[in-house]
Amino acid sequence: MPNYFTKPSKSAEAEVTGAIKQWAYSLTDKDSLDPLFERIGESRIVMLGEASHGTHEYYNWRSYISRRLIEEKGFNFIAVEGDWPDCYRLNRYIKNYAEEGKGAFKVLHAFNRWPTWMWANWEIVALADWLQHYNQALPLNKKAGCYGLDVYSLWESMESIMQYLGKTDPQALKAAEEAFKCFEPYRYDEGQSYARATQFVPELCENEVVHLLKEIRAKLPSYNTDHENVLNAEQNALVMVDAERYYRAMIHGGPHSWNIRDDHMAQTLDRLLKYHGEKSKAIIWAHNTHVGDARATTMSEEGMYNIGELARLKYGDDKVVLVGFGSYKGTVIAGSRWGASMQKMQVPPAFEGSWEHLLHTAGNHNKLLIMSDFNHDVFMENHIGHRAIGVVYHPQYEKYGNYVPTILPLRYDAFIYINETTALHPLHIQPDGHQMPETFPFGV
């Protein structure tokens, strides 16, 4: 992903900071978000980003926004940048299905794929408990759900399908077993050995997963379990098909594997909206790089697109609201390499000339920007660097790999700026005192 950016001129910086001082809302308490809810209006899809996968404030503000959208505007579900099988178990728990009455901590503690902290954290425990309580008195078709959008869970999805078919369709189980046998030698390294093997046999297991999907789709009308389990079976088969494509593309590098992943997320969103009905509404939680319209960044120059762009194109700008998040400095949970132990890392002050630095220069308080207020030429003409921290992070090299050149008012419909952020609270590291930390700064 391109990460170079040109520092704006002094006059441009002065114009940008002046406009921010004039038009940004101070974010002091939960009521400060009222302009955002006015902007959301009757939109069908609200996407809530984050500038990292390990920041407490991003999770808490998104949680509060999601609760209000569910309670006040009738949103039907939250779909996150997470694995379908894990999130589906959480969905069963919050909807009070009898077999999932383990408690939010146990359900989320079972999220054991690295980076575990993304969803196995105390902030999500608080949201899950709220959802479970909210759903208790509602009929099944009115309960708010939670689903995973991502494509990484090849083996978990395969195991889920085999368990389901073993109970409902022994004949179709044979197709699942054939797919399992094909992938079994490549199981233990997150698809890397499978990706390498496809250099020599390009369609290594493609036929098996496509056949399994066809078999399941042909039998869906005859499955007599509850409707969500039927949805689950089909989605797990689709995860397998797209995961196989993703791992096959991964070895070649470039934008293709990224696009497969975001296209899968977009199609999963489409299926969930269709499943919940023509008037259904969705909340999406994902990184800014997925949520913020890629056409407003240099990602598009590399041939990359994302779920935010795809949703705007399919559903229309008036039905989709994209909300970005960012901060000036703080701490974050991340790893030094893929699979490494999680660490609390310092996030240094944003580099001069970046959006985060300009927002800080305009006042070191938290802010809400409604982007229709910022259509000035200086905002629209400059690709200014916008920080993006992943699950792998090296603060000392941040300038060279963590800023995406961005036209902010075109990338988002609203932006929430937190001047100083703190690290997330993972479940797999005991919090101080072994107690749940405060999950929202205003006691919500």
From TrEMBL:
Pfam families assigned: Erythro_esteras (PF05139)
One of the GO BP terms on file: response to antibiotic
InterPro entries according to UniProt: Emycin_Estase (IPR007815), Hydrolase/PRTase-associated (IPR052036), UCP036794_erythomycin (IPR014622)
Tree of life domain: Bacteria
Protein name: Erythromycin esterase-like protein
Record lineage: Bacteria, Pseudomonadati, Bacteroidota, Chitinophagia, Chitinophagales
